Amino acid sequence: MPVNLRTPTISIVLKKTVGRSKINGDVPVSERFAGQRSEIDLTPFCDQLPIVVNKSVRDAAGSFSVSLVDRINLDSQDSLYGLIEPMDLIEIRMAGNAFKYGGKPPVLMRGFVSQVRRSQSMQADGRPIRRVIITGQDYGKIWQLMQLFILPNSPEGANLISSFPFFQRFGGDFNVLAADVFVRQVFERIVNPYIAGIAGLDPGGTPTATYVQMIGTDIQIMDGVVAPFQYGGWNSGTVYELLTQNCDVGPFNELFIEDRESGPFVVFRQNPFLDSSNEPIHGNSKDIEVVDITQDDVVSIDVCRSDSNVANYYWVETEAYAPVYGDLLRANAFQGGNCSPLLCV
Fold first, then answer.
1. I need a labelling partner for 137 at 20 to 30 A (CA). Which of 55, 86, 212, 247 fits?
2. How many C-beta atoms lie closer than 10 Å to residue 185's C-beta?
């Protein structure tokens, strides 16, 4: 009887992005941080402790939680709790059958540390338990960190009195843009310059001993437009909210960040939904890659059905249509042949 053998493998590497010798230019940093290694392999500290990674195309950012044994790091002679800092980069790789990838499992998530916690307790038999728990988010944390506020009393020259403050602050083409062009410009002119600032890139774009990567774009939507009057007056919210509100993200399109071997990429594509005849509602949805999972690949299964996020039809109104016509005329417009000639166009 053939037996399916698995060789699961995990690799977790911490890459220091917070490199400094002084605080505020005057106060020297502790010596244990000044000469530490730029990479720390956290895999030997896992010791069968839980490692949780969450990712969804419906969430702004993926999250991870890594539990480590609180042992002394031999290179620095210090605990990991003292070496790991917020905004350090963590690369998590996993594989169910590692031999398929030549010993190096594929990347599952690249993320930034948000919190480092140290837990100590005593067991019933008197033995101590010491753990270091690291939590954070993937590159989706960036477009949630970027809060765009353009107010009349904003400091540092951002107090723009204009009907289109978005263009005056970030530039962009003041014209009707295709949806793919709009998403690409947001990352080229807003998100990636912000990442370059926190990554320590010089004006020429040369990395200064950093592992932070720019976010690439994988745009799979070639139709749909965004009017400048929609986002030109944008003055508050995150970059993720800016994109979701102007690109029909949710009922029609998907927008998420995916970690690939070459780096993080933002994916903007149409939802692979089916119509009542079981056909894709979008023409290019037929090219969607389908992954078949056989019974041999299933270790455990928990099946559930729900009516959440289920819709048959969407009522979509034009923004320019609402302020021109009143409720009565709009109601008549949806009555078929009983509508006003002015509205039957």
1. 247
2. 16
Pick the range with the lowest mean pLDDT from 20-34, 194-208, 248-262, 273-287.
20-34
Residue 80 is encoded by which pair of tokens?
């990991």
Contact criterion met (CB below 8 Å) for 246 and 181 = no
Pair of tokens at residue 247? 């690109």
Mention every residue, 6+ apart, whose C-beta is less than 8 A from residue 7.
97, 98, 99
pLDDT digits (tens, 9 = 90+) for 29-57: 555 555 455 788 898 888 888 899 999 88
Residue 302: exposed, middle, or buried by beta-carbon count in 10 A (0-12, 13-18, 19+)?
A: exposed
Q: Which residue has the tokens 């790789």?
A: 93
Report the distance separating Cα 95 and Cα 190, nearest Å.
Answer: 35
Strand partners, 268: 219, 255
For residues 249-260, one letter each, b for 16 or more C-beta atoms within 10 angstroms of the residue's C-beta and e for the rest, the string is beebbbbbbbbe
Q: What is the pLDDT of residues 140-198, one digit of tens each?
A: 999 988 877 666 655 555 555 555 566 666 666 666 778 888 888 888 888 888 888 77
Strand-pair category, 51-54 with 89-95: unpaired
Q: What are phi and psi of 161, to 5 degrees?
A: -100, 95
The Cα 321–Cα 330 span in angstroms is 9
Alpha helices in 110-238 (DSSP H): 140-145, 165-170, 179-186, 192-199, 228-231
Amino acid in the structure at residue 95 = A
* DSSP letter, residue 103: T
For the entire predicted model, the pTM comes to 0.73
